[in-house]
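Lab notebook page, bench 4
Experiment: in silico fold of construct C2
Operator: M.H.
Input chain length: 237 residues
Purpose: comparison with the prior construct
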Amino acid sequence: MAHSDAWKTCLKPRKELEEVLDRVNKSIEIKDAHIELSTVARAHELVEFLGEHFFPNETLSKSIGLKFDEDLRKDLLEILKENLSVIVVHNRTNEILALAGLVLEYDGMPEVKLAHKKFALIMEYMRHRQNDMDVYKRFKCNKCVNIAFLGTHREHRGKELATTVLKAALAFAKELGSTPVYFHGEGSAHASQKIFENLQFEIIHRFKNEEYEVNGEVLFKNTGDVKELICYVKEMH
């Protein structure tokens, strides 16, 4: 998942990106916590956070019995290897409390080959109508930022940390290089859908979970009251 030439020519050096996020951190007040940019040193911790606090509650993962294992660890490390995710960190314990996993993408980018079969099924569902929700065609651009994961530590939910970390991620990504910046993300639960919509993301597509079939069988059968996967985009100048 190397940067395209388009990202290489506009992406700021890592030191400048850290300075950008430091400015964002100073503009956001979080009780007993602060904002950081993910690092190589925190990569495994970030992945373990997703395994413990994101996937067990994620609607589609639960519906097909996704299990967190070594294959999924490898997939996540590959997807997030650019270390551009924004995280909320506890001041005293240094523990990750929330994260917005950001991934740089570009038009024509090859798909990452995923080792975890059930995770691959979820990703295929999110991409199966890609032509109907093509960010590049919609905005006449050649690169975008994917909000791949949005999660909160299960013991710190109800404090609006997911909203806070996504706001910080938007402010940070706006200064990645050149503007405008285009975002896309998927909401698979009511909580994430509400956050995207409160932050004025535009709905670009809705997929009914019960209508998606693989080999003639509905894949996501047990998603409770969450009937749709909603795809969002946002342009920031």
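Observations: The two ends are 25 Å apart (CA to CA). Residues 14-27 form the longest helix (14 residues).
Next step: discuss at group meeting.
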